[in-house]
Amino acid sequence: MVSDLFVLTLNEVDGLKKIMPRVKKEWVNRIIVIDGGSTDGTVEEAKKMGLEVLSQKGKGHGNAFLTGVNASDADHFIMWAPDGNFEPEEIPKLVKKAEEGFDQVIVSRFAKTSVNEDAGYLDTFGNRMFTFITNVLFGSHLTDSLNGSRIISRKAMSEINFHDEGTTFADCIQMTVRSIKRGHMICNIDGNERARIGGVRKMNPFPVGRTLSIEIIKNFIFWKM
């Protein structure tokens, strides 16, 4: 199994400096930094570290991920970010679970053993609510349907007809619910969410919550396999 790691960045130089030295090259086939137009030296720091860097032509999280997919020959893709929220040590755990035959594996920040240092009460409530709705509507048994630390197979990506949702942060829930609806093997592994390192948080909970609601309903009613 060949896996590529897509490190999605937008002004994350502080996190990049502290987190990327903990990412072992032997864990994956390629490490590709996909940058959305950083102005804080993120790209320069990544190149200084010897990392491969691609600049996305569009905007948003989903577009960055697609940029990686289109540049990769791997059969599995890992979505990831160096902002400090994700623990590098979870990367080989994602790969191992995918090797067991799962089409998509998502790190859960809300499992019984999880430590969450970043999500406040509102974020925690929202994540649990949207995951509960996903489980009820689509018949899944997830504890976290939204996290951006995940691995998905090329085959699964081709079967969910993933499309760029711009800057709405709807790409992760789209990947989740379409995989479930398609009958893919999808699961969580227990993980943590650590405190952000530098940079600026890019998610506004209220508009994102509205967008997630629309995305779930739209895919439940209208998306056809």
Automatic annotation (TrEMBL):
CDD domains: DPM_DPG-synthase_like (cd04179)
Domain Glycosyltransferase 2-like: from-to ranges: 7-159
SUPFAM superfamilies: Nucleotide-diphospho-sugar transferases (SSF53448)
Pfam families linked to this entry: Glycos_transf_2
Alphabetical list of PANTHER family matching this protein: RFBJ PROTEIN, UNDECAPRENYL-PHOSPHATE 4-DEOXY-4-FORMAMIDO-L-ARABINOSE TRANSFERASE-RELATED
Name of protein: Glycosyltransferase 2-like domain-containing protein
Protein species of origin: marine metagenome
